[in-house]
Known about the structure:
Layout: E1 4-5, H1 18-32, H2 46-60, E2 69-72, H3 75-86, E3 92-96, H4 101-109, E4 113-117, E5 119-120, E6 123-124, H5 126-138, E7 145-148, H6 162-175, E8 178-182, H7 199-202, E9 208-213, H8 215-218, E10 225-228, H9 231-238, H10 248-287, E11 296-297, E12 305-309, H11 316-325, E13 328-329, E14 345-349, H12 355-381
Parallel strand pairs: 1-13, 3-4, 3-7, 7-8, 8-9
Antiparallel strand pairs: 2-10, 5-6, 9-10, 11-12, 12-14
Helix pairs in contact: 1-10, 2-10, 3-4, 5-6, 10-12, 11-12
Amino acid sequence: xxxxxxxxxxxxxxxxxxxxxxxxxxxxxxxxxxxxxxxxxxxxxxxxxxxxxxxxxxxxxxxxxxxxxxxxxxxxxxxxxxxxxxxxxxxxxxxxxxxxxxxxxxxxxxxxxxxxxxxxxxxxxxxxxxxxxxxxxxxxxxxxxxxxxxxxxxxxxxxxxxxxxxxxxxxxxxxxxxxxxxxxxxxxxxxxxxxxxxxxxxxxxxxxxxxxxxxxxxxxxxxxxxxxxxxxxxxxxxxxxxxxxxxxxxxxxxxxxxxxxxxxxxxxxxxxxxxxxxxxxxxxxxxxxxxxxxxxxxxxxxxxxxxxxxxxxxxxxxxxxxxxxxxxxxxxxxxxxxxxxxxxxxxxxxxxxxxxxxxxxxxxxxxxxxxxxxxxxxxxxxxxxxxxx
Length: 389
């Protein structure tokens, strides 16, 4: 049985530059290999942090000091360090009403209470955020931080407009709340005109911590992320980093490769991802649109995910189960819900599967959704013993 994996956010295997990375590895081991007998410096391998700073300045038109950057073992370690520094059991973390399941799981393991802010097509609704913060303030409590994926939001794919970003920062300043700006999908963009400056770029109060990643444009196995923060906050965050340092060999190889190939590599990734997004939206239009009332899906201008609503009255868990029996992997919306309740959505990752697998797998998924809906309708139509229609 074929597997059609729409489950996790990964780039296409064909975009991985195996030969070029092998050449970069040979060069750095020959030239700098003896450095590997030492532990990495606290903030990580400086040349890769310089690449991160260069990347930020080119994208954001604003310098980012290298010493304000620390490498981490993927962006999730950055978030773990932030949680260790700022979250105590029972404290509140504010997120979007749908957010990355890995982040939600990490927050739950910290025994945080999650409060989701309603969203629209442009991300977190700032009026709703302000109302939530006011209610919390009236009860004498405020969140440990606001966690947002403002660009290419996971799972919805939305981009928060710049005006709303300014509003979010003004609200955070008024209530003296830290903001965590998870920008790990920022390089994957298909409509550059929709891009907006990061919250970290717009902030002038030192209350935003920025999370970035190299893994999303190479592969999660690389485990190379980073965070940026003002010096006072950086010291608070890194005091919990006790792993001996981020893998320096991987950092050396990436720095050697990206010093000449960062932007050309991003172009290749975006070209492949755009084609796969287009293939998936076309397949959804053909096979999901006829399923019934309530069906819609996003057409993300970047990132790795499409957020698809299934027909009213469909058992989403049954649809996912049926799909799994036929080789189609995708998570139900509950995994992205801070309340941990079922919602009638599927998150479809389009980066990893080939166009051929997308075109073959989406029709199967649509059949499974239809079957789950009919099964659910059949259950509702059953007549109890002793009753008649």
